[in-house]
User: Fold this.
Amino acid sequence: MTLLSIDWFFLIEKLLLISVVLVLSLVVAMYATWGERKVAAWIQDRLGPNRAGPAGLLQPLADGGKLFFKEEIIPTNSNRFLFILGPSIAMVVACMTSAVIPWGDTLTIAGREISLQVADVNIGILYIFAVVSMGVYGIMLGGWASNNKYSLLASVRAASQIISYELPMGLALIALLMLTGTLSLKEIVEQQRHGLWNICYQPLGFFIFLVCAFAECNRAPFDLPEAENELNGGYHLEYSSMKLGFFLFAEYINMFISSALMATMYFGGYAFPWMDKLGLSPNMVTILGFVALFIKTLLFIFFFMWVRWTVPRFRYDQLMRLGWRVLIPLALVNMLGTGAVELFKHH
Amino acid sequence: MQALTNRAKQVDRRPMTFAEKLYIPAIAKGMGITFKHIFQRKATVSYPDQKREFSPVFRGLHILNRDEEGRERCTACGLCAVACPAEAITMEAAERKPGEEHLYREEKYAARYEINMLRCIFCGFCEEACPKDAIYLSETFAPANYQRKGFIYGKDDLLIPDPKAQNK
Assistant:
């Protein structure tokens, strides 16, 4: 159906996909808060939330409802516009990243091929980098607009931390790009589907990417911008009600997206072993592939939580030393090594 | 200086080796420990549904006892108040009037008997001091309260129900 030279089915299909992906990431983020508390409890020999609903499954709803009904406080001396803009940016940016992740192969419904990816842009990885580094503006603006020294300190910390860790992250990715020769996430997954997963070729690169992902998400052991005990909660110190909720929520969405990214780039994305040899219908394989990606993502989210409740927070100088003096040289070595091997292979 | 126990250990102050400086083995070890704890027996109980048993010698809230005919045993002699190291017990004595023989066992009784549960240290000395077997420490503890005055337990809080009145 083409009207006014627009393929309306395409539009509807993409809108549906966008809503599904958005709802999915919100629900996963919501239940990640429950999961976080459960994992923390188990690791500390406790039971965790178990009052609201079976196994405490309604706890995220109760938490969200509480945040909505809390009093909304905007400090008198804050910049009102920026104060509201901060959490909004954090939330929007966190949701935007999911656009280029291939959630599955194509589904064929009524003769139409529907790709389970919102946008297969050929610069997918660059897009992710651009969007992720915008996330720091949310924290920066929020911290600055609060007009509070602790918030400002935290946002300065966040900014320098994210800039420092974006470098090794980028370098680790360059090595991956030299290997795959493409910036499109879909193609990266397709290559892994027919060959070995990238983790086999890039173990060091993956490790660097993993550490940087922790830092980019402001997760423990790199949660210096939040630093409950030194900065009183950091950049969201002055925030209350759902604006605080947005900041906290954005962190969990970021965690979900970076888990999905790691699964996509290094662990085969929606590819799973023998997926082309099972003799299933293509639609079935696509659905199973989505499930595989989802399981991989959940495992990474669990890993994020597991690390948070094991490793203590870095001191600020240790954080900077790790970023600049360990990870960047390591990433450079990894990049040069990969480049040399690729060059050798092609001659 | 001689060590008090044989478990004292010299602190290792050698500079870290390369493997130690990497921190990765140490982090992996720590993660192993936390992973093991996921499956271990939980140290907590779901309190209101599930209660931990007290030890058989637990000393909890006091009760004022009655005899088999349902008469109050306490004669307001004040020995418990004297024995109390925390000075938590106060009382006022009164004389039994004719016709009150079914209420009080002896000629003298406690018209007012108060224990401040915030002062009480639950040592059980009052129980030991009592010559009339009138006061005992039970196996419950004081519930939370919003006000301090809620913790001053009077006779109506402490006295056990009349066994005869219950039978009727």
Observations:
- The beta strands of chain A are 2-3, 6-7, 106-109, 112-115.
- Chain A has one domain: 2-346.
- Chain A has twelve helices and four strands.
